[in-house]
Write a structure and sequence with these properties.
There is one protein chain. Helices cover 36% and strands 14% of the residues. The chain is built from seven helices and six strands, in the order H-H-E-E-H-H-H-H-E-E-H-E-E. A four-stranded antiparallel β-sheet has the order 3-4-6-5, covered by helices on one side. Strand 3 and strand 4 form a beta hairpin. The radius of gyration is 18 Å and the shape is elongated.
């Protein structure tokens, strides 16, 4: 597990712009927050630094130090990838998933060249399984358009593609397409198992 931020780094986080999450600090402080997954450097000039969703959660949690998860370089919430047995329907989990999805939309807005939120960003393209699972789990916790649980998201040998298995392939594909992915249903030649192959949409 990554070490918690220092007191000086926490002050930088707490002083972030409340609306945009823009950070002010020394180059060393900002670089350290990026390594901790609490900040990211905007790809366009002037290359300002902003809080990631994990950074926002840490700031909102108050003054007590909290460690940043080492497994999430971009600070995006780790969604369930295995299946229905892993999804907790409780209100706490629902809030975490909702906040993570909103944070990911903000990450899209901040990092996509045209500020688009309707298609995946660079972080999602390098964390395909987590990104697809977050879109699916967010739909499961969305009251107005509940998704279908029971999915299993798996990596594939194909570049920028994940496989989704489960009892409701059409619904999984519709959920991912609404989240900016392009999908198709396929049958594995060896096992004859049906699955959805999903890739982040570029345009």
């Amino acid at each position: 597990m990554a070490r918690p931020p220092t007191a000086a780094q926490r002050r930088v986080i707490e002083d972030a712009d409340p609306g945009t999450g823009r950070l002010r600090g020394t180059d060393a402080q900002l670089a350290a927050l990026v390594r901790l997954g609490l900040a990211f450097r905007h790809p366009r000039p002037p290359h300002d630094h902003f809080l990631t969703p994990a950074g926002h959660r840490l700031r909102d949690a108050g003054p007590e130090p909290a460690p940043a998860p080492a497994a999430e370089p971009a600070g995006v919430f780790a969604a369930r990838v295995g299946g229905a047995e892993e999804i907790s329907p409780g209100p706490s989990r629902a809030r975490e998933v909702r906040d993570a999805w909103q944070g990911l939309l903000e990450l899209r807005r901040m990092t996509n060249p045209d500020s688009a939120t309707d298609r995946p960003c660079g972080w999602e393209r390098t964390h395909l399984v987590r990104a697809a699972a977050l879109a699916l789990e967010a739909a499961c916790h969305r009251p107005e358009h509940a998704g279908t649980p029971g999915y299993r998201v798996r990596a594939t040998p194909q570049p920028e593609a994940v496989a989704v298995y489960g009892p409701a392939l059409t619904e999984y594909a519709a959920t991912l397409e609404a989240a900016g992915w392009q999908c198709g249903e396929y049958t594995e030649a060896r096992t004859r198992a049906r699955h959805v192959l999903a890739s982040p949409r570029r345009v």
